[in-house]
Amino acid sequence: MQPIAGLTPVAYPQGIQLQVTQTMHVPVPGAPTPLVGLGDRATPHNGLTAPKAPGLMQFSDWELDKPGCCVKMGLACRGSTWDDSRSYLYIRDNSSLEINDTNGIKNCFTCCCEVQDNIFVYYFDRDPYAPNCKLGPFPWCCCCYTGIPKLEVVDMGIMCCCMKCDPCCLGKRVVLMPFETLPPPCCCCSNRTTQCDNCFNLCGSPVGNPKIFVWFAPQPKDANRFVKAAQTAMLGGVHGASRSNVGSPPGSAVMER
């Protein structure tokens, strides 16, 4: 039998002659579709803005926490309702956060209008997450201190007569603590609550909570797990490469840039 033109015969030890056809690449369902072009940028990226892989970006997608009574009342005063269909919270592989908070203060009257996106991207080598040198508050403006921001979990309970209670049922919340030690003139004091601050657990915040912090929004459902993954990314590591240590949510995915 004559070999067909364009096909390469392959000889096996048994003497059987097979005809091998050209390989066809069949797209796998669910796999990312290759981009037609990866762009023409030749200018080097500054800092963490460069993607880890050309044309692709890995990220972990975190479930958002449901609103409490206070949040619902605030939305009602603005003529809005809670919407998490477009809200999201990503930790990206180039050590950055991407947030879409559709329930922020900017969104009003969403009960009769379309919900607007409110997107922010924070790179961990820039404010407010990067360590930097800052001036002390007035009148100690001539004094400098180094702030090392970090994401922390705050216990929203209150100590009362050596018992912890949570009247608003807020549980644990993610916050950004700008520094571990207070700025001048209190540069010898910790930014965490001690037993002296809450009268030895008689009244005040639980021990270990930050005293000065910035609220984080939107809130993840699993605050502890999210903070562990975010702290790993803030240290410069790729969270996807250390999932065995910090855990990875089921929503981990790859998106095209």
Walk me through the structure.
The protein is 10% helix and 25% strand. It has 257 residues and is mainly β. The protein has one domain (55-236). The strands form 5 sheets. Strands 6-5-4-3-15 form a 5-stranded antiparallel β-sheet, with helices on one face. The radius of gyration is 26 Å and the shape is globular.
Keywords:
257 residues, mainly beta, five-stranded antiparallel beta sheet, three-stranded antiparallel beta sheet, 10% helix, 25% strand
Instruction: Indicate the low-confidence ranges by residue numbers.
Output: 237-250
The SSE string, one letter per element, is: EEEHEEEEEEEEEEEHHE
Helix content: under 10%
Biggest β-sheet strands, sense, barrel: 5 strands, antiparallel
Please indicate the percent range of residues in DSSP E strands (runs of 2 or more): 15-25%
- Count every beta strand, where a strand is a DSSP E run of 2 or more residues: 15
Q: What's the mean pLDDT score? A: 78
The total of helices stands at 3
Strand order of the largest sheet: 6-5-4-3-15
First-last Cα distance: 51 Å
What is the overall silhouette? Answer: globular
Radius of gyration (CA) equals 26 Å
What's the quick description here?
With 257 residues, the chain is mostly beta strands. It has one domain. The chain contains 3 helices and 15 strands.
